[in-house]
Known about the structure:
29% strand, four-stranded antiparallel sheet
Amino acid sequence: MYKLVTVPNTILNKPSRKVDTFNKQLVKIVKEMEETLNAQVDPQGVGLAAPQVGLDMAIFIMKPTPRAATEICINPVILQTSKPQTPKPAAEEDDEKPLEGCLSIPRIWSPVQRPRRVQLEYQDIHGEKKQVWFTGFKAVIVQHEVDHLDGVLFTQRALEQKSQLYEEKNGKLIPRSL
Length: 178
C-alpha cells in the first residue's frame, strides 16, 4: 500500500508522464493503488491518481461505491464533454449541495461545476485503447482524476468558479477564505 501525498507536495501540481510500458510492474503499481484507495474510509475515496501516491505516471483508478469494480484508466484523454450542469435556482435547490473533496487535500470541500458527461480515451492495464462515455458521478470522478494528471487540483477549479471552500472541523463544514 502506498502513502497518500498531500498538498503542498509539488508532484500534485505538475503534469504526469505518459505510461509506455505495460508489464507486471504496472500491474503491481495498480494493485497497490487499489489497496491504498480501498483503505481510505474517513472520508471514503472514490478515485485515486498516481501523483496522489507520489508516482509521476498518467494512471488513475476509480471505484464510485465500495462494492463497485475498480476501473483502471491509463494515459487518459477527455475527448469531449456535454455542457456543465448548471446550478438550480434557489427555490429548486436541495438542502444539500454536492461537494467535491480530495484525499490529497484533507477536510476541504467545495462545490465544483463540471460536465455531467465525458468521453474518455484511455488504455487498459494491457495497453488496449478504449473510448467510453461516462455520465453522472463517474463523469465527475473522471474529470477530477484527469485534472490530477494535468497537475490541477479541485480547489483551483473551485477558485476559478468563485465557489466557496469549506473546511471540515468536528463534523461541521466551516466556510474558509483564502
